[in-house]
Amino acid sequence: IKAWGDRLPVGIKLVIEGEEEVGGAALTTYPPGNPDYFQADAMIIGDMGSVVPGRPTLTVALRGMANVTIECETLASGKHSGQYGGAAPDALIALLQALATLHDEHGDVAVDGLRREQWAGGGYSEEEFRALAEVVEGQPLIGSGNLGSRVVSGPAITVIGIDAPSVAGALNAVSPRARAKLNVRVHPEQDAAEAQAAVVRHLEAQKPFGISLTVTAGETGNGFAAKTDGPAYDAARDAWQAAWGSEAVTAGVGGSIPLVNALQQAAPDAEMLLVGTTDGYANIHGPNERVLLDEFEKAIVAEAEFFGRYAEVHKGDQG
Predict the structure, then answer these.
(1) Exposed, middle or buried by CB within 10 Å (0-12, 13-18, 19+), for 308?
(2) Residues linked to residue 271 through DSSP beta bridges, in sequence order
């Protein structure tokens, strides 16, 4: 904005959001209920960045998410594995059997009702992904299809927590109860509650050794898919290419940003540009998080350049 001084060629509304760091939810519910404050032709959301340094990126898809908890209780208390093992129902074994049904032999999610499509956009190469994920040498990636269809336009189910006896504190006992929490990542355009219900149905249908399970739905958040054929995207591609000196790419991200969906609900006709100053190696939300000054400066130049190019597009539309 300062780069244009008093000659700013477009109107600006500025929304500052910092609730992610404190767990607040006001700005995920406020925009849909107060849409007049958020009307715009285009929104620039500065929460993303380049796939890798030097590769200007427009993020066009975010997966949604849903949490599910699964529990199993089979005994009033733990029983000696020598006296009772082999007949007494082991809650942990039953839970593991149920969890094992969530994926097929390739590592693909095996739950009916979860949307998956081939990803046609850009993103990481497998070599870049391996480096970013710090995959141990010699270990394979899981799943089938191109990388984008596994981490952007397809589902993922991760066991993010499990209650079970620790190895250090192990006892020779049949487990009386066990519990796990699952995080489900959802196709950008699938309703997260719909996907969550599919996972709940799948797990409720499992009866390992005839043992019943209790499945509980948790939090949900819908994903995001951008419309990329409008004038804002035309102007942004040119602006980001000019700032970096190389062609801008589009990419999807497997993570979720609930605020983006809330803003889209408030202003469904606005073009949504997800950009920013970070890059794939910035280790966001991790130790030694960093931003490269070169990427930061180019992102500022690109946004300032976008204002001018977008104004020219609108001037042309108006004759």
Answers:
(1) middle
(2) 42
**How far is residue 274's CA from residue 260's CA, in Å, rounded to a whole number?**
9
Say what the alpha-carbon torsion angle 303, 300, 246, 46 is, to the nearest 10 degrees: -70
CB count within 10 Å of CB 50 equals 28
272: nearest Cα among 64, 10, 20, 40: 40
The predicted model scores a pTM of 0.87
Q: Is residue 98 scored above 70 in pLDDT?
A: yes
Instruction: Tell me if residue 211 falls in helix, strand or coil.
Output: coil
Give residues with Cβ within 8 angstroms of 96, minimum separation 6. none
Report d(CA 116, CA 23) in Å as an integer: 30
**Inter-helix orientation angle 231-244/293-317, to 10°:** 140
Say how far apart CA 19 and CA 26 lie, in whole Å. Answer: 8
